[in-house]
Write a structure and sequence with these properties.
By secondary structure, the protein is an all-alpha fold. It has four helices and no strands. The chain has one domain (2-104).
Protein backbone atom coordinates (compact mmCIF):
# COMPACT_ATOMS: atom_id res chain seq x y z
CA UNK A 1 0.00 0.00 0.00
CA UNK A 2 2.75 2.49 0.88
CA UNK A 3 4.55 1.59 -2.34
CA UNK A 4 1.48 2.68 -4.32
CA UNK A 5 1.36 5.95 -2.40
CA UNK A 6 4.97 6.60 -3.39
CA UNK A 7 4.40 5.77 -7.08
CA UNK A 8 1.27 7.92 -7.60
CA UNK A 9 2.94 11.30 -6.92
CA UNK A 10 5.82 10.35 -9.21
CA UNK A 11 3.38 9.43 -12.00
CA UNK A 12 1.45 12.64 -11.44
CA UNK A 13 4.67 14.64 -11.72
CA UNK A 14 5.63 12.75 -14.90
CA UNK A 15 2.25 13.55 -16.48
CA UNK A 16 2.69 17.24 -15.57
CA UNK A 17 6.18 17.36 -17.08
CA UNK A 18 5.02 15.56 -20.23
CA UNK A 19 2.07 17.95 -20.66
CA UNK A 20 4.41 20.95 -20.31
CA UNK A 21 6.83 19.44 -22.83
CA UNK A 22 4.04 18.87 -25.37
CA UNK A 23 2.70 22.39 -24.82
CA UNK A 24 6.14 23.92 -25.40
CA UNK A 25 6.75 21.70 -28.44
CA UNK A 26 3.51 22.98 -29.99
CA UNK A 27 4.54 26.57 -29.22
CA UNK A 28 7.89 25.95 -30.92
CA UNK A 29 6.14 24.58 -34.02
CA UNK A 30 3.89 27.66 -34.12
CA UNK A 31 6.93 29.96 -33.78
CA UNK A 32 8.64 28.21 -36.71
CA UNK A 33 5.42 28.53 -38.72
CA UNK A 34 5.26 32.27 -37.94
CA UNK A 35 8.92 32.66 -38.95
CA UNK A 36 8.28 31.02 -42.33
CA UNK A 37 5.26 33.29 -42.88
CA UNK A 38 7.37 36.42 -42.34
CA UNK A 39 10.32 35.06 -44.36
CA UNK A 40 8.08 34.15 -47.29
CA UNK A 41 6.40 37.56 -47.25
CA UNK A 42 9.82 39.21 -47.13
CA UNK A 43 10.75 37.51 -50.39
CA UNK A 44 7.31 38.16 -51.92
CA UNK A 45 7.66 41.83 -50.93
CA UNK A 46 4.39 41.71 -49.02
CA UNK A 47 3.48 42.95 -45.55
CA UNK A 48 3.63 40.29 -42.84
CA UNK A 49 2.78 40.20 -39.16
CA UNK A 50 5.18 38.45 -36.81
CA UNK A 51 2.44 36.73 -34.82
CA UNK A 52 0.49 35.33 -37.79
CA UNK A 53 0.93 31.75 -38.95
CA UNK A 54 1.42 30.87 -42.60
CA UNK A 55 -1.87 28.94 -42.53
CA UNK A 56 -3.80 32.00 -41.38
CA UNK A 57 -2.08 34.12 -44.01
CA UNK A 58 -2.99 31.55 -46.69
CA UNK A 59 -6.65 31.94 -45.70
CA UNK A 60 -6.39 35.73 -45.90
CA UNK A 61 -4.71 35.54 -49.32
CA UNK A 62 -7.64 33.55 -50.68
CA UNK A 63 -10.28 35.65 -48.86
CA UNK A 64 -8.74 38.85 -50.24
CA UNK A 65 -8.48 37.45 -53.78
CA UNK A 66 -4.67 37.49 -53.84
CA UNK A 67 -4.03 33.80 -54.45
CA UNK A 68 -5.93 30.60 -53.64
CA UNK A 69 -3.41 27.82 -54.29
CA UNK A 70 -1.45 28.18 -50.98
CA UNK A 71 -4.62 27.65 -48.92
CA UNK A 72 -5.58 24.63 -51.00
CA UNK A 73 -2.10 23.14 -50.64
CA UNK A 74 -1.86 23.68 -46.88
CA UNK A 75 -5.40 22.41 -46.28
CA UNK A 76 -4.70 19.26 -48.31
CA UNK A 77 -1.51 18.59 -46.37
CA UNK A 78 -3.32 19.16 -43.06
CA UNK A 79 -6.08 16.79 -44.18
CA UNK A 80 -3.49 13.99 -44.22
CA UNK A 81 -3.35 14.46 -40.44
CA UNK A 82 -7.15 14.58 -40.11
CA UNK A 83 -7.26 18.37 -39.80
CA UNK A 84 -10.16 19.78 -41.83
CA UNK A 85 -10.47 23.49 -42.63
CA UNK A 86 -6.98 24.05 -41.20
CA UNK A 87 -6.34 27.48 -42.74
CA UNK A 88 -9.75 28.86 -41.78
CA UNK A 89 -9.41 27.52 -38.23
CA UNK A 90 -5.93 29.07 -37.99
CA UNK A 91 -7.33 32.40 -39.20
CA UNK A 92 -10.14 32.28 -36.63
CA UNK A 93 -7.68 31.35 -33.89
CA UNK A 94 -5.57 34.39 -34.76
CA UNK A 95 -8.62 36.66 -35.04
CA UNK A 96 -9.94 35.59 -31.64
CA UNK A 97 -6.53 35.73 -29.95
CA UNK A 98 -6.55 32.04 -28.98
CA UNK A 99 -2.77 31.83 -29.46
CA UNK A 100 -2.19 34.45 -26.76
CA UNK A 101 -1.44 33.58 -23.12
CA UNK A 102 -4.72 33.48 -21.15
CA UNK A 103 -4.00 36.81 -19.40
CA UNK A 104 -3.82 38.61 -22.79
CA UNK A 105 -6.89 37.10 -24.45
CA UNK A 106 -9.84 39.39 -25.14
Amino acid sequence: MSRTKAILPALDQLVTVLAMFLHNLKQLAIAVDQFFNVALCFFLRERAWADETLSSHCWRWEKDGVRAWPRKLVDRLALLFGDTDHCYESYESERLGKQLPPVFRP
